[in-house]
Amino acid sequence: MTEARRRPVSGDPIVQLRDVHMGFGALRVFEGLNLDVYPGEILTIIGGSGSGKSVLLKLILRLLQQQSGTVRVDGEDISAYDEGRMLPVRRKVGMVFQNGALFDSLTVYENIAYPLRERGVDDDAFISQRVGEVLEMVGLPGIEPKLPAELSGGMRKRVALARAIAEAPKVLLYDEPTTGLDPINVRRVSELILSLNRRLDVTSIVVTHDLASAYMISDRLAMVAERRIIAVGPTEELRHSADPQVRDFLSAMDYERRAE
Predict the structure, then answer these.
(1) CB 220, CB 233: distance < 8 Å
(2) Could you say which of 22, 81, 186, 207 would form a disulfide bridge with 178 (CB–CB 3.0 to 4.6 Å)?
(3) For residue 36, which of 205, 260, 179, 152 has the smallest C-alpha distance?
(4) How many C-beta neighbours within 10 Å does residue 6 have?
(5) Euclidean distance between CA atoms 94 and 101, whole angstroms
(6) Which whole number is the average pLDDT over 151-156?
(7) What would the pLDDT profile of 179-190 be if each residue is shown by its tens digit?
């Protein structure tokens, strides 16, 4: 895979987590986690299984709530927002879930139209045009009548991405977007993440175990370990980090990739 052109980070963070503590009963997930994500960048979050990477994405959408600390999205401190106040915030943030989370009983058209109808759009002509636009963006024009069961794994991932961008979000969250895909579809999805980031001028936060994809798409990497972010910086900086924990983790990921 070719590597992404790196964007310099600048401006105020569009997503910010400060001194976040989070856990489930006796299990502590985060203790004092801090992270800034800047407009227009692709930040990829790496770390071991169970380190809390997917939890971090859910905190940004407030699908989970931290015990303490603050989470800001587009300048708003959402830490105490109820569901009603979160609705307009969530329209700014699209999420591609690991398994796609498509509704099996709905067609591709109905799956993509769903978030638009949920926010009160009832103009069928507009919805039809928008569904066609986003399917074109992900390279799947004309599949509106199909059901998810009729699609390959790679196509389902791309339909989930089309649904995530239907509301023109400012931020896109990806939870393991290439899991379960063959190398051709891994590359295709990675290239889509890159092209949509630039075409739509969005900020992308990606959780992945796929090292080749992470190196291809990322402006910066952030590593979660010991219940916090232990390292964050430009991809090349982390690839050549002197920190033994970062170096050993990336070496292990690279070994697993080469062994496949």
Answers:
(1) yes
(2) 186
(3) 205
(4) 14
(5) 13
(6) 90
(7) 888 889 899 899
Q: What is the pLDDT of residue 6?
A: 57
Angle between helices 153-165 and 124-137 (to 10 degrees): 130
Rounding to the nearest 10 degrees, give the CA dihedral for residues 113, 193, 202, 218.
Answer: 150
Helix (H), strand (E) at residue 243: none
- Gap between the Cα atoms of 234 and 236, Å rounded: 6
Give long-range contacts, CB 8 A cutoff, 24+ apart: 149-157.
149/104, 151/108, 152/185, 153/180, 153/181, 153/185, 154/181, 154/182, 154/184, 154/185, 154/188, 154/189, 156/100, 156/102, 157/96, 157/100, 157/181, 157/185, 157/189
Q: Whole-model pTM?
A: 0.91
pLDDT tens-digit series, residues 34-83: 999 999 999 999 998 888 999 999 999 999 999 999 999 999 999 989 99
10-81+206-260 maps to which CATH number?
3.40.50.300
Tokens of 23: 């856990």
- Shortest CA distance to 186 belongs to which of 260, 128, 131? 260
78-103 pLDDT, tens digit per residue, is 998 999 999 899 999 999 988 778 99
Take residue 189 and report the two structure tokens written for it: 């999805």
